[in-house]
């Protein structure tokens, strides 16, 4: 029950960011001529990488192309067993653990996150994501300021598009 309430809080934060982004637009929009967007998402595209033991993946759920906004991005990420990335920075990243355990290392300090817990990191702090469970870890990643999915393209991860 606690994890459900925490997830609702995270999604509420995302909604606030989306509303702020929408309100900050100075263009008047005629409802009859509003741009089309998807009303739901089970995935837009998926990025994959080969890890030591198996394939890791990032499934984008919300990005610029799906709502015509350059801000908030949301993805489901699977970090395979034994995974550890290098220290990196995000303007703001929220990681909600769905399954498994994630070692959320911020500025060299380890924080073990269990399902239902939220990891937060923002600039200028450095973060390392490390799997802390034998079956890997699955998280919901929220980037309120966007520009993260573009990095996956630049890193040349394998990209799969979903059929609509």
Keywords:
single chain, 164 residues, alpha+beta, Jelly Rolls, seven-stranded antiparallel sheet, three-stranded antiparallel sheet, 3 helices, 10 strands, 37% strand
If you had to describe this structure to a student in words, what would you say it looks like?
This protein is α+β, with helices and mostly antiparallel strands and 164 residues long. The protein has a single domain (2-23, 45-161), classed as Jelly Rolls (Sandwich), CATH 2.60.120. It contains three helices and ten strands, in the order αββαβββββββαβ. It has a seven-stranded antiparallel beta sheet with strand order 7-4-9-3-2-1-10. Strands 6-5-8 form a three-stranded antiparallel beta sheet, with no helix packed on it. A hairpin with a 4-residue loop joins strand 1 and strand 2 (55-62). The longest helix is centred in the N-terminal third of the chain and has 23 residues, at 2-24. The protein is globular.
Let me know the CATH homologous superfamily: Jelly Rolls
- What is the CA-CA span between the terminal residues? 33 Å
Strand order, sheet with most strands: 7-4-9-3-2-1-10
Number of strands: 10
The CATH topology corresponds to: Jelly Rolls
Shape: globular
> Quick one: CATH class?
Mainly Beta
- The share of residues in extended strands comes to 35-45%
Note the run of SSEs as H and E: HEEHEEEEEEEHE
Average pLDDT level: 81
**Sheet with the most strands, sense and barrel status:** 7 strands, antiparallel
The number of domains: 1
Name given to the CATH architecture = Sandwich
Helical content (DSSP H or I, runs of 4+): 10-25%
Summing up helix and strand content along with how strands pair, one would put the structural category as alpha+beta
